Amino acid sequence: MSESLLDTNVLVLNRFFMAVRVIDVRRAFTLLCRDCAEVIEMEEGAPFQSYDFESWCELSELTAMDKQPGEEYVRTVRLELRVPRILRLTRFEKMPSQTVRFNRKNLFARDENTCQYCGKRSSSAQLSMDHVIPRAQGGRTSWENIVCCCLRCNGRKGGRTPKEAQMKLLRQPAKPRVNPLMEQSIEDPRYTSWRTFLPTGNKN
């Protein structure tokens, strides 16, 4: 199952150009339309440029006539709108969160969409979240007790611990220090421009 372009990632910066979160393209266009954010466009060897929604539409019309490798567009009724990869908030001084939100998307990013039992990498639609220690045995719903799991391994493990199911974890789950979506995304050529705004560091 291929990923929809509207579901791909956009890095959000605060007013001070500090990375604060990752959102999808749908949400990015909503922020632009409401004048809550501007696009930051990175060009190799040149200072970055900023665009509000109106100027981004104008730029999209021009660049759509001569599309370059790596540029992606969403077709609307009126024009082809170029997909932004970095937004800067213009109305809020939101600071980077010191904790990583526990949710399905961040969990799959932490585990790199890889089943933590068999090692198979799959799309998010083919994965589930597994309690290492089952809830029926007192297992918590937390970073330290939930792993990415393929549907086959989830069915095999059932309501048992890995030891009871004679299955072995690839690695012990832990809470990530930084947003795993940011770390995962910079491996993708589409998000190379993010590197300017992300702190360097090792993955867990």
Compute the average pLDDT: 88
Number of helical regions: 5
- Give the CA-CA distance, first to last residue: 28 Å
The spatial strand order of the largest sheet comes to 2-1-7-3-4
Query: What's the structural domain tally?
Result: 2
Number of strands: 9
Based on CA atoms alone, the radius of gyration comes out at 20 Å
Q: Tell the overall outline.
A: elongated
User: β content, as a range?
Assistant: 15-25%
Sheet with most strands: 5 strands, mixed
- Given as residue ranges, the uncertain stretches (5+ residues, pLDDT < 50) are none
Structural class by helix and strand composition: alpha+beta
Estimate percent helicity: 10-25%
Order of helices and strands: EEHEEHEEEHEEHH
Notes on the protein architecture:
The protein folds into 2 domains: 5-98 and 180-197, no CATH class; 104-157, DNA Binding (I), subunit A (Orthogonal Bundle). Helices cover 20% and strands 22% of the residues. The protein starts with 8 loop residues before the first strand and ends in a 19-residue tail after the last helix. A hairpin with a 5-residue loop joins strand 1 (9-13) and strand 2. It is built from 5 helices and 9 strands; from the N terminus they run E-E-H-E-E-H-E-E-E-H-E-E-H-H. It has helices at 25-33, 53-63, 104-110, 151-157, 180-185, and strands at 9-13, 19-24, 37-43, 46-51, 73-75, 80-82, 86-89, 127-131, 146-150. The longest helix has 11 residues, at 53-63. The strands form 3 sheets. Strands 2-1-7-3-4 form a 5-stranded mixed sheet. A two-stranded antiparallel ribbon has the order 5-6. A two-stranded antiparallel ribbon has the order 8-9. With 204 residues, the chain is of the alpha+beta class.
